[in-house]
Amino acid sequence: MAVVVSNANAPAFEAKMTVYVFICVIIAAVGGLIFGYDIGISGGVTAMDDFLKEFFPAVWERKRHVHENNYCKYDNQFLQLFTSSLYLAALVASFIASAVCSKLGRKPTMQFASIFFLIGVGLAAGAVNLVMLIFGRLFLGFGVGFGNQAVPLFLSEIAPAQLRGGLNIVFQLMVTIGILIANIVNYFTAEVHPHGWRIALGGAAIPAVILLFGSLLIIETPTSLIERNKNEEGKEALRKIRGVDDINDEYESIVHACDIARQVKDPYRKLLKPASRPPLVIGMLLQFFQQFTGINAIMFYAPVLFQTVGFGSNAALLSAVVTGTINVLSTFVGIYLVDRTGRRFLLLQSSVHMLICHLIIGSILAKDLGVTGTLGKAQALVVVIFVCVYVMGFAWSWGPLGWLIPSETFPLETRSAGFAVAVSCNMFFTFVIAQAFLSMLCGMRYGIFFFFAGWIIVMGLFALFFIPETKGIAIDDMRESVWKPHWFWKRYMLAEDDHPDVEKRSA
Ligand code: BGC
């Protein structure tokens, strides 16, 4: 059974990597930085006593009873709601953002994101009660929904095909930098009493302002302009970002994609048609799998997790800084390899890699960490090392590819809608993990690592058989070069009446 797809017949359009594209990529990716900052900041803030005393006094009381069950110190639905409310809001927002993205463009969608971020930061950092705090998180969530919808699409559309993977992963790189900055901020503000947590939550204002002003400088994508009938502007934009004179072939291919897209009045209905199934199923499952690698159990709750296995409060935050650094550095490996070895290699390699880490961590905790005891120094160190090795594998594979693949595999007519479904699935599963992790940790204890290990086996097999290689293929050519030749997905491509060209002919 041939599961690898040949890319030989993919058209390559002429393009240079221009300084202008580079600047646009960096500015847009600041959206990712804010997302990462939000992910990273929650774990540290919820480990700060001042914060707990003010908003979650019951958790604080419980935490002080040191001899309590190791795995259950923090299990509190409201505390989890603090972390997870953001993702619920982002879930809803990504659908609105998708409409804004199609109707107004990628650039205004990013501008809206920065405004939501600023409101959210103000409310959360200035919160005087739980309601204000949660509202702040909801606005931040709206920002994340808008940003995560627009930025990866923007990046995939302005990137030349042969560099698309690497440029798109700059989004993930910024996510990881955001997480790292948040971990460092947590580390220092934990010492600032009683308002350190306000500084921590307020820090997101800086990237939000950069995004707001930066997004005035960047270009709208040619695809989005042409999609909205601004063909001349679109052509100009394309010439500007490609840095070559002969952009006609690519321009024609975008116009063609837009012609097809225009005939689709309801992209969500179109998503339900068989021809949309391959990118839709893959886009949704990637999000489920990405979250069920267990990454956010580590990212949100690293300080809590490290405290649980016996580190002191500050040592725990410091370990989170270490994992954060590894996360950033390993993302560069992804950027370097994704357009060389391709997407599949990274997904498969890292599945084996992460599986081994989970099994080792789970076994150490099972063997050495009693319910109320602490872990010996040596074992705790081994746990931290394997958490780091695990984070490495995630950072060059399921992390970035969870965003890259859905942004590059939908045809234009369903790209924004399809990507919105993917983003909202990501938010939903992130919400599930954020909401459930502390309870799962309490109920399953070390078993949680075996739970994630089980899912990693499933996702590895899925990648092996069902995720085709998309390296180097022009974004508007996936149907011909990827889905039609694929051993499994081709069956959905054969239903010709599903193709809009045919709808037109028979109309
Ligand atoms: C995921 C986040 C995760 C982060 C870790 C992202 O791709 O979507 O949920 O926290 O990677 O670096």
TrEMBL record:
Pfam families on file: Sugar_tr
Compartments where located: Membrane
Family stated for the protein in its record: Belongs to the major facilitator superfamily. Sugar transporter (TC 2.A.1.1) family.
Membrane-spanning residues: 19-37, 78-100, 112-132, 138-155, 167-185, 197-219, 280-304, 316-338, 345-366, 378-405, 417-438, 444-467
Keywords, sorted A to Z: Membrane, Sugar transport, Symport, Transmembrane, Transmembrane helix, Transport
Protein name as catalogued: Sugar transport protein 6-like
Organism: Camelina sativa (False flax)
Superkingdom of origin organism: Eukaryota
Domain (Major facilitator superfamily (MFS) profile): residue spans on this chain: 24-471
Entry membrane topology: Multi-pass membrane protein
Cited Gene3D superfamilies: MFS general substrate transporter like domains
InterPro entries: MFS_dom (IPR020846), MFS_STP/MST-like_plant (IPR044778), MFS_sugar_transport-like (IPR005828), MFS_trans_sf (IPR036259), STP/PLT_plant (IPR045262), Sugar/inositol_transpt (IPR003663), Sugar_transporter_CS (IPR005829)
SUPFAM superfamilies for this protein: MFS general substrate transporter (SSF103473)
